[in-house]
Amino acid sequence: MALMGQMMSAPLLISSIIKHAARYYGGTEIVSRRTEGDLHRYTYRECELRARKLAQALGALGVKQGDRVGTLAWNGYRHLEIYYGVSGMGAVCHTINPRLFPEQIAYIVNHAEDGYVFFDLTFLPLVEGVAPHCPNVKGWVLMSDRAHMPAESKAKLLCYEDLIDAQDGNYEWPQFDENQASSLCYTSGTTGNPKGALYSHRSTVLHSYASALPDALGCSARDVILPVVPMFHVNAWGMPYSVPLVGAKLVFPGARLDGASLYELFEQEKVTFSAGVPTVWLGLLQHVQANNLKFSTFRRTVIGGSAVPPAMTRALEALDVEVIHAWGMTEMSPLGTACKLLAKHEALSDADRHKILEKQGRVIYGVDMKIVDGDGKELPWDGKAFGDLMVRGPWIIDRYFRNDANPLVDGWFPTGDVATIDEDGYMQITDRSKDVIKSGGEWISSIDIENVAAAHPAVHMAACISAYHPKWDERPLLVVVKKPNAEVSKEELLKFFEGKVAKWWIPDDVAFVSEIPLTATGKMQKLRLREQFKDYRLPTA
């Protein structure tokens, strides 16, 4: 008979994180740039009290455990209160990406069966348009005070501050099974309807622990942390949980994510650490470089969502900012890997260390991964063989919300990425399986092509897509947005590739455009580009 341990049994619940922050870091600040235009300051202690009041208010509205409560909101203190108030009472916090098409938002609200939806003032016109198509929503809660409520509306509006003010906060966080659903995030839906990933309290707390580790995000109570990645994008990569867990000061940028506004907030609040997708840092770097500025306290950032161009890494390092390359997915809560050096790498040259840091990194504890060929056979970890990337772990989905089809293959989740893994376990994405260019039966990495192009001083943004070729089936076409007032010819750009990639990888042509379409989460929308250039005739064809 097995000998059982004799330890206390306490469920891993999201409410325990904010209780911990309020009790042990109660005076630590949360600073938010509000949609009303001002800067709001309060503490973890006040945040936890208001989250309890919100839980009371939701109970008074008839919200029960398991009910879905939606949000259409920027990063701010009220959104944080909803994260904890909704999940803490046992309901499900469903963050919705407001950058999606209104038809997709209506689909998501209806598919999730949201009973109430909380939204920021910015999104009132969006809500007015979507509300008539969401008949099951009992109320739309404007996240502001009575003074900002519109005189009339097509939606059934409630006032957030009125809901909070009506409660006394005399509320105990309930205890329940840690495997109960806590929050719901939908994929960005670039192909077909978005799909829902339903997280549990257990998976979220474990993800928070692991992501805060030194060789992951490395969060500390000594940090001032500003998540630029939106709270509607996979729960801001878990930072609304991992930051209170360690008791760091939290700074929320609200709707103003331009370079000048971010720089002002970084300096004013003495931000040390941030996180966001590459397109955000492009804007910040442009502002800093154009105005010959420096950062006084900002020292590290996690960049994910898509591959970080080496030129961006070098530009941030020149400003004394360490870049931590990370990778994950909505289906993974989202963090899977982070790229930090091992002790043995300290003796390497700068060039060799950068080759490692350009990879997506090693798994954090809790995630297991492998690469397989087209027949499902596991491939070696030699840094050369590339195949389909598969993952498994306690914060990775085993199926999508309200979808009985099992996406797993022999217990592993297929990520849709093509990758290599080296002997030290460093994983590098070579492409999305749908973006890889198959030329004459050989694969060309669109990411590698984009990274070379992004290093050219005249290039603001570059995307590499396949174009039809009668002999080779597909050849790379480079689509480029030039920097303001910069000039570069097609011939100059193609010559720039010489010696940097295999000769047969060099794109057959360059198309200059005014902008590259982005997805709702700030990634380049290659599906739209491929549609735009579907009839493009290469000069080599």
UniProtKB/TrEMBL annotation:
Keywords, comma-separated and alphabetical: Fatty acid metabolism, Ligase, Lipid metabolism
Limits of the AMP-dependent synthetase/ligase domain: 21-401
Entry GO MF terms: ligase activity
Top EC class of this enzyme: ligase
E.C. number(s) listed in UniProt: 6.2.1.44
Segments forming domain AMP-binding enzyme C-terminal: 449-523
Similarity section: Belongs to the ATP-dependent AMP-binding enzyme family.
NCBIfam families: PRK06018.1, PRK06187.1, PRK07008.1
PANTHER family: ACYL-ACTIVATING ENZYME (PTHR43859), BUTANOATE--COA LIGASE AAE1-RELATED (PTHR43859:SF4)
Protein name in the entry: 3-methylmercaptopropionyl-CoA ligase
Underlying gene: dmdB_1
